Amino acid sequence: MKILYGVVGEGMGHATRSRVVLEHLLAIGHQIHVVVSGRAHPFLMESFRDRPGFSVQEIQGLRLVYKEGGIDKSESFWTNVQAAPNDLRKNLEAYGSIAGRFEPELVISDFESWAYFFGMAHELPIVSIDNMQVINRCRHQAVITDSRCFNFLVSKMAVKAKLPHAYHYLVSSFFYPPVRKRRTTLLPPILRPEILAARREPGEHVLVYQTADTHSELIPLLQRLPYSFRVYGIGEDEERGNVSLRGFSQQGFIDDLRTARAVVAGGGYSLMGEAVHLQVPMLSIPLQGQYEQELNARYLAETGYGRWARMLEEESIVSFLQDVDTHQHHLMRYTPRGNEMLFSCVDELIGRVEMGDPRPDFLESPNLGDYVASQIDEEIGPETGG
Prior knowledge:
386 residues; alpha/beta; Rossmann fold; seven-stranded parallel sheet; globular
C-alpha cells in the first residue's frame, strides 16, 4: 500500500516515535512518502537513507520560540507571520508534487496537519498515531485537571480541532484513563529499539535534560546540591565539579538513563515514557504554556512514578531525590511492554482499509484502556463528534 506519513518537526519525540512505525511499515513491504518539517527532516533523511520504498519531503510547519522555561507566544506568532509567504509556497509545491506523483491510498499523521488536510482533500482514510489525543479522547479525573481547568479546556479544544474525524486514533500513553470516544485505542509508549534493548542498572548519578535557552541558571543551581549530575542539552563534554556536561550521543544518553538514580527533565512525553519503561523515577518541570506537558507531569505524579514542579528550584529537586525510593517502589508495579501491540493495531487498520471497511469503533487487537466496548456503549452512546 502507498502511505503518506506526516511528522511534526517541533521537538524530536514525534520523529523518534515515527521512526519505529516507519521501520515496521517498510519491513512488511509498504511504500512510504514522508512529509516532515523542522529538525525531524534531517533525522528521518539519515535514518532511512537509500531504503527501498521510502521517500521524504520537507514541508514547513509552525515554529515555536522558547524563552526561560516556556514558550514566548508573541515571538512565536511574529516568527510564523514573517515566514508565512515562503512557507505557503513551499507547502503548495509539495502538495502538487505528491498529488501528481505518489498518489497515496492511506494517510498516517503524527499530529501533523499538512498530511491530514491532503487526506481530507482526497477523501483518504486517515490514521492518527500520537500521544496528544489522550487529552481529548479520554476522560480525566478532576484531580488531574481542576487546578488548571481553563488551560485544560483550551488544550482539549485545540487537540480536538487538530485531526477530527480520522479513521482511527492510536494513542500512546504510560497512563490509562478511561476512553470516552469510539475509534480510539490506547497503546503503551512507542519505544525506539535502543530503549527496548536497554537494561536497568541503577547508579548514583542524576540524569538532567534541559535546553540552554530555557534554564540559564541550571548549572549554578545543581552545583549547590550534594549530588552527582549528568546534564544533556546545554553544551559539549565538560566537568564542572559535581556537574558533568554531556554532548549529544544517543547511546551515551541511553546508558546514562538506564543507570541513573533518577531523571530531572521537562514534560516531554517521549523521555517520560522511556523513563517509566526503564523504571527510572522522574522529576518533571513542564514548559510554561504547554498544557500537554503539564498533563503528562500530573499523571506522572498521580501514578507515583515521580513528581512534577512548576519551577526548577533547589527545594523541589532535593525533596524529589530524598523520596526516590518511594517512586522506585511504585514503578515496580509498571509492566514494561514492547511495540507488538502497536504493530498489530497498525496492521489491522491497514487491512481494514484495504478491504474497504468502514471506520472501526474498536479493534480486534488488544488495547490497554481500562474499559470494555459495552461500557463505552452505555456511557456515551453513538459518537457524534470527531
